[in-house]
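cache lookup: miss for this entity combination. No prior model stored, computing from scratch. Input as submitted by user K.M.:
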Amino acid sequence: MISPRVAILNYGIGNLSAISQALATCSVDSCVIETYSQFFNNNCTHIILPGVGHFKACMDAFLSSHLYSLIEHASDSGAFPILGICSGMQMLSSFSEEGDCAGLSLIPGRVLSLSSLDVPFTPHMGWNQVAVHSKHQSEPFPSLHSSYFYFVHSFYFQADESHVIASTSYQATFPCVVFKDNIFGAQFHPEKSHSAGLKFLSEFASLAC
Amino acid sequence: MLRPRLVPVLLLDKRRLINTQKFKESRYLGDPINAIKLFNDLMVDEILILDRSAGPSNEIDYNYLERLAARARSPIGYGGGVRTTEQAVRVSSLGFEKVAFCTSALSNPSVLSSSSQILGRQSVICCLNIKTNPFTRRLSTFSHSDAAIGAPLETTLSRLYHEDFGELLLYSQALDGSRSNYDLKLLSAVHTNKDHLPIITICGGLSSSTDLLELHRKYPYLGFAGTSFFVYSGPLDAVLISYQNPFF
């Protein structure tokens, strides 16, 4: 069995160090990569797309990097699991209201403002639980059950039920873990969510490649 | 269900962890990096670093901030000397989830919105230092580094209504270090116009779990921050890092 090595994509945005250290805590090997060839030269098996901040700023930076072809290849081939975190998750959508900007269109859905829902305040900030949808109770992320994760976001990923693994409630309910085939997105920050987040990252690294 | 946030605020002065009473009388507590490590082990909700030595005459200590962020396993924010969007972006790139504007929030509030355009509003904190007139009991905002800046609280808040940012941190000078409970008058005054405001976090006076639970019932989405509560123990205020979260 091949040991996982997670490629953390460096396109100039995201807390790469925190993700790398969280993976190391789980005894998962990782490396920061900036090009398509680095992914294969380092024998990487999984991809994390980090993201912090404004959607358009993230998309502009990503499309200016040399990493889009890697994501495209991983998506088309289905060979490498991909995890988008926070703004990285939102980038997997087709469109975001934050900047009226197109996303990577890898998971069907749009990113809309939380203020369009009946939420008490925006942003959604702090530690919240997630509710795993019935079809995904035992896989791929058992760590989601009864655990608190750290959220800090002002927009949410509106996806069809068939692409939602888990939702969270903040007066209104909205998706927080989405997927399509080998591509996953988490709205919370697993690298900053203590033991629950570490388990989640470990489970991602254990997905077959 | 969203759990209320309980946030240790670490006050820095030239890379030293300090504690203050009414923003004065600083006492040396130890090494900030070690404190962060201890708070990691205690699995705190968030940490906020406020550097009092960073200001108009002292540049932000980026090298040191990078070391602090690298140590943090919890979400971490920073404030102190941040005056421009470019500085905020640079601080964020070091690994801070949130960046706080203090003096600039008063002198140039539009920097909040311009920073939100790049960092996302959830990453931008407006930090207001609050003082209470001992005679009239009126609340006003002020700056540590610019005595000319300041205004009645209502005036400051009405200016901020037009800006886009994710969190408003209210830091009471009168109750700083007191552990006598938060400024209830301040909370009431701000919540009168809460429809215009984002997430509110209160600091200064954090006293006990009982008071926290009571305030949470009244203000269900309020964030709670503190300094002395997390670093002192016992009748002689021995230095001891602790974190007892009644919301767990």
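stored under new cache key. The longest helix of chain A spans residues 194-205.
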